[in-house]
Write a structure and sequence with these properties.
Strand content of chain A: 35-45%
Helix content of chain A: 10-25%
Number of strands of chain A: 10
Distance between the termini of chain A: 53 Å
Number of domains of chain A: 1
Largest sheet of chain A: 8 strands, mixed
CATH class of chain A: Alpha Beta
Number of helices of chain A: 4
Oligomer: homodimer
CATH superfamily of chain A: Gcn5-related N-acetyltransferase (GNAT)
CATH architecture of chain A: 3-Layer(aba) Sandwich
CATH topology of chain A: Aminopeptidase
Chain lengths: 175, 175
């Protein structure tokens, strides 16, 4: 296996790794979870196992969605970010977020999820910081999302603002 | 000029026209504006004159944006809709809206604008109805936007809801 490591510009000791299927994989954390050590990796590849993603969304109680539609949504997202660890060489998906964007001015973040077993350890924060960092590379300056009441505080801590200058998020649903 | 007309399925008498550069153009209104008759057309072509678009955005007092970034934004929008009339065979842009989307679940509407000379005559409403109609063809059911305080009422009349179930629109801006 061709395998190289590179120190990444960050406060934490992180590494950019490249494996055989040329996905960029970043080690973001060595996590001690219930006396087990997990190496948590981040990847922006869109080659995501849809069943794993469904299982992850199911773990936080989200409504089931047709896999066909999920596939289209991933393909047409500007950015997808996955968090995972390896278990016997198999990726175990524990976090996810995706972004729609015009690649220029605006981006909207959707489907932010961390598996309940891995919540409360700063992984959501790290995930969001990486999303913002990647969007800023494209000079996208209006980064938006729609937050459920229970996660508004979480996003506030990351610098997100509710209704700036009275701008309101609005939704249209089919009847 | 190859030119054909077709009656469109709508309450109003509208026509789908196709011109030589194979853009779909829809006549949406015969407008009497200051004793002059305007045939107002709608098109979803992305072949938009960036200077015309800039002029239109300028007419409603929006901040100037780099044309290079506008071009990228249009290219990466899921949908762009223009309203215009012809003046001596030249298109005069009087309305615009664009949408980012994952082509599956969600869409976000940006840059909705009607030229001040043509406001108050239902064109904004017609523009938005066409946006929603086109998104529904793709079975996109979460249609979102961020509304300035002065247009919240306009979107409410179109069926848009503020903060459903306490979901809040949030923004992150670079410092």
């Amino acid at each position: 296996m061709i395998f190289w490591k590179l120190f990444f510009n960050s406060n934490k000791k992180t590494r950019l790794e490249k494996n055989t299927d040329s996905q960029n994989i970043l080690l973001i954390r060595n996590l001690n979870n219930k006396n087990k050590i997990y190496n948590i990796y981040l990847s922006t590849t869109k080659n995501i196992n849809l069943y794993e993603l469904e299982k992850l969304c199911d773990s936080v109680g989200w409504v089931k969605r047709p896999l066909k539609k999920v596939k289209i949504a991933l393909e047409n997202s500007f950015l997808t970010i996955s968090l995972f660890y390896y278990n016997e060489n198999k990726k175990k998906l524990i976090g996810f977020a995706r972004v729609t964007s015009d690649n220029s001015f605006n981006a909207t973040i959707w489907d932010v999820v961390i598996h309940p077993d891995f919540q409360g350890q700063g992984l959501g924060k790290e995930l969001m910081k990486q999303v913002i960092k990647k969007l800023r590379i494209y000079d996208i300056s209006t980064i938006t999302l729609f937050a459920d009441p229970q996660v508004i505080k979480f996003y506030r801590h990351l610098g997100f603002i509710i209704d700036p200058d009275g701008v309101k998020g609005m939704f249209w649903y089919p009847l």
